[in-house]
Design goal:
Blueprint lengths: L12 E3 L3 E3 L4 H13 L3 E6 L23 H7 L3 E7 L7 H25 L4 E3 L3 H9 L3 E8 L9 H9 L1 E5 L28 H13 L2 E3 L5 H10 L4 E6 L13 H9 L3 E5 L2 H4 L4 H13 L13 H17 L5 H15 L4 E4 L18 H9 L4 H27 L1
Parallel strand pairs: 3-4, 4-6, 5-6, 6-7, 7-8, 8-9, 9-10, 10-11
Antiparallel strand pairs: 1-2
Helix pairs in contact: 1-13, 7-8, 10-11, 12-13
This protein binds zinc ion (ZN).
């Protein structure tokens, strides 16, 4: 069994499908539990379900679609703060495509504001600064911070970035799957060339400068290697990867190479290692075939197809994917911490963080919903990380970057 936050810690516990902890290890578990309680834990990437903010979705209750983060599970798992994501998939690069994307982005901003301002103002608060995150967490409530995934909704209008900032966006990833006007993606669409701009476009460069001035963190997750290196060379403030993994362990196009890791460190930034099965560990040929088959059957191999699924289709997709995972189990917490270890060795303890990508394809054996968050701390304790180090990894580093980005913007205003 997997250790749950509510499980009585006795006897033999199987952690993340890898290591077996004997009864003598209960001390270790008690230590992890105490540290986990004291440190401020931030998950830097949680997608929001399609029905988020509607009457059909209640943040207090597990919903029918297997959503992985709720207020009760956050409390159970000792998760203090989450970046909720205004994600819009890449679609047709026309005025019509941009307009639809902008409308979708505003619906998500609105849903997050509804959650924090109307539905659960006593339990949750929107944080606009690093100081807000600390204050809200100290008050015993959950902090929500907004991240944006894909710069596509802004079209070519830089002024919309100011509007996103006012709406609460505190990081922006310029790309998702498929190239856009801002630069090249790590995963181009089938008909696209590997590189369209050769990295960051000229509009993308203007976006980086504006984000620095506004005080929005720049996120390189989903950007191509050259786009990432261009961003890192240009940005005047620290840069993050909000949900990425390590190329040196898993050869996936979404994963960061050593040269990118080093460049992120040079901006004094932070890489948040993500609990995403296929980035952490290459799946077997059989599993890949089964997953590809499912995507083909549900016609998900076209741009934006996933977003178009209705709740019934989505539910059916999650059910089929779960059956595939049951047959070929996902990576575990130990795999995630292998990526953390690699990053710490390469760029140091001050530049590493954690993300789940829950509700967006993330979730691994042992950390498959917010309620299981303690398992990550347990594995870190098991590997000898100190409380100070765990506090940095679980959010201290991210808040330092957020403060530096705020300070740069304030300096530009004066
Ligand atoms: Zn993503």
């Amino acid at each position: 069994m997997i250790l749950m936050a509510t499980t009585a810690v006795m006897g033999c516990i199987l952690l993340a499908g890898n290591a077996v902890l004997a009864e003598s290890d209960t001390e270790l578990i008690a230590q992890a539990r105490a540290i986990h309680k004291r440190v401020l834990t931030i998950d830097t990437h949680v997608d929001i379900p399609f029905n988020f903010g509607s009457d059909a979705y209640d943040m207090m209750k597990p919903g029918p679609l297997g959503q992985q983060v709720h207020l009760p599970t956050m409390t159970e798992g000792g998760l203090d703060a989450v970046f909720l994501i205004v994600y819009v998939g890449q679609s047709t690069r026309t005025i019509t495509g941009n307009t639809k994307a902008l409308s979708d982005a505003f619906l998500k901003f609105s849903a997050i504001h509804k959650l924090t301002e109307e539905s659960y103002p006593n339990e949750v608060e929107l944080a606009r600064t690093a100081e807000d995150v600390r204050r809200i967490s100290a008050s015993g409530r959950k902090a929500v911070i907004i991240g944006m995934e894909n710069g596509f909704p802004m079209g070519k209008d830089l002024r919309l970035l100011d509007v996103f900032y006012d709406q609460g966006a505190r990081y922006l990833g310029l790309l998702h799957n498929g190239h856009n006007e801002l630069g090249d993606s790590a995963q181009p669409f089938e008909k696209e060339d590997t590189a369209e701009h050769g990295g960051l476009s000229s509009l993308g460069k203007e976006v980086v400068t504006r984000l620095n001035k506004l005080g929005i963190m720049i996120d390189v997750s989903h950007a191509s290697k050259q786009t990432t290196l261009d961003i890192l060379a240009l940005s005047k403030a620290p840069v993050i990867a909000s949900h990425s993994a390590i190329r040196g362990i898993g050869n996936h196009p979404r994963n960061l190479s050593d040269i990118e890791l080093d460049a992120i460190k040079n901006t004094n930034g932070v890489v948040n290692l993500v609990a995403f099965d296929t980035y952490l560990r290459s799946p077997s040929a059989e599993k890949t075939e089964a997953l590809d088959g499912l995507r083909k059957k549900m016609e998900l191999d076209k741009p934006g197809a996933f977003q178009k699924l209705n709740p019934e289709q989505l539910s059916s997709y999650y059910e089929s994917a779960a059956a595939i995972d049951a047959k070929w189990p996902k990576a575990g917490v130990a795999d995630l911490v292998d990526h953390i270890d690699y990053a710490v060795r390469r760029i140091g303890i001050d530049h590493v963080g954690i993300a789940s990508d829950f509700n967006g394809g993330g979730g691994i054996t042992g950390w498959n919903n917010a309620g299981e968050t303690l398992n990550v701390t347990l594995e870190l304790v098991k590997r000898g990380y100190s409380e100070d180090e765990i506090a940095k990894i679980w959010g201290g580093n991210l808040l330092r970057v957020m403060e530096d980005v705020e300070a740069y913007a304030a300096q530009m205003k004066n």
